[in-house]
Amino acid sequence: MVALASETLDQLLDPITACFTPEVADRIGQLQLDGKIRSKLADFAERSSLGTLGNGERAEYQELVELLDLIGIVQAKARRVAVNRGT
Question: Which of 24, 48, 59, 66 has its CA at 20 to 30 Å from residue 38's CA atom?
């Protein structure tokens, strides 16, 4: 994934979050990471700190972290919608 400037990311995500109803925004804001993904992330993090990740695993770990960052941003925006629209 390519890192985007905050302003560009806002321009891309704001039209999406503007479509959220308060209920949808609340549900998105409360989403939790799947147990399998959480375990995989923890394994990658541990092995990364030990220097034992293979190249493919390192790339997968980086992509996973970037996707989770994006999901976190969407969740933060969703929480803001839920608060501003009254849930």
Answer: 24
